[in-house]
Amino acid sequence: MREALSVNELSILFSNLSKGCEKQYKKEEAELFGKLSEFYGKKASGPDKHGLEDLEKMTRKDIDEYPEAKQKVLEESDRGAMRALVWSEKVSKIVSSIISRYLKSGNSILETTNIHVCEICGFVYLGDEPPEVCPVCKVPKFKIAKVRR
Amino acid sequence: MHAVRNIRLCTKDCLCLYVCPSGATDTEDGQIDAGKCISGCRLCVDACPSHAISLVPEEFPKPQDKSDTSIGVLMEMLKSKSEQSLIASAISEGTDDPVLRQLASALTMSNRLMAEDIIREAGFMLPQGESVKKLLMELKKDHDVPCDVIDRLLELL
Question: Is the pLDDT of residue B64 over 90?
């Protein structure tokens, strides 16, 4: 497993495990995983691609791959994996449409509005008041954070 | 299994103070004193009108096994989301435009959260799970790693 994970993926794994410890009220463990996440995060080198256009291409590619990915985990009866794929597929479609709109219209679509991100599933919401529950993962509104400008 | 209080939900009705046989619920920091809490007692959990108290297990069952197919599918998606979070982060760091910076940091967060959710389903659900310990041991063999942090984690988990 070690070889399969890049430094950024290790950082991602450890920040998630840190949250898992926080939920168990294990403060020291949460901090230690947090330190590891930061350590591997700093080691991550800059990406090969650099623009929003690259992000647009990559989200589109993901969206194309979700049906087959979901079919494979369905055959494994892995409902946990299916849930993660269903949620991230929905979020990817929203993200892809936001990027496309931004590339077409520029700052005008965002200038007079706020951006929020659901801290549980990554759902992105453009607007001043986020919905009462996240439309993707159904978590209550207080878990949907405003992104500062 | 000891009791913990979610301060966000606690409405200070204090029923937990009345029912606790050991005084564990009455503390200055709002948390329940794990040293005094009677394992599995749950009187405060049931008495709390706001459902702000729950029990945290000390031991967990072994997580569900994951098939190589599932792991493979999830790892592919993880790679893409991880890469996208790096690209978005580079965009946000490299621009002077506050609107683009805000959008790019939202995209960084979003991709990172999706990636976190995906990797936990690939066999890393439980921090105390064997796969986490195994990975930590493997990482310890690398150069330039914070061995003290890893050792302490292995000791605690």
Answer: no
Number of other CB atoms surrounding residue A68 within 10 Å: 9
pLDDT higher than 90, residue A49: no
Measure the CA–CA gap between B15 and B124, rounded to whole angstroms.
Answer: 37
**Domain A112-149 -> CATH class:** mainly beta
Q: Do residue A76 and residue B70 have CB atoms under 8 angstroms apart? A: yes
Distances (CA, A) of A10 to B26, B66, B85, B134: 40, 19, 13, 14
**B111–A120 CB contact, under 8 Å:** no
Q: What is the pLDDT of residue A59?
A: 97
Q: Does B49 touch chain A (CB under 8 A)?
A: no
Q: How far is B48 from chain A (nearest CA, A)?
A: 19
Q: What are the pLDDT digits (tens) for A97-131?
A: 999 999 999 998 888 899 999 999 999 999 999 99
Going from N- to C-terminal start, the domains of chain A cover 1-49, 50-110, 112-149
Average pLDDT over residues A83-94: 98
**DSSP letters of A31-95?**
HHHHHHHHHHHHHPPPPS--SHHHHHHHHHHHHHHHHHHHHHHHHTT-HHHHHHHHHHHHHHHHH
* CA distance to partner chain B, nearest, from residue A132 (Å): 17
Q: Which residue has the higher pLDDT, A3 or A114?
A: A114
Structure confidence by residue, pLDDT tens digits, A26-45:
999 999 999 999 999 999 88
Give the ranges where B31-129 is alpha helix by DSSP (H): 43-47, 68-94, 98-121
Query: Inter-chain contact A65–B90, Cβ cutoff 8 Å?
Result: no
Q: What angle do CA B47, B53, B55 make, to 5 degrees?
A: 105
Quote the pTM value. Answer: 0.92
Please list every residue in chain B whose beta carbon sits closer than 8 Å to the beta carbon of residue A102.
103
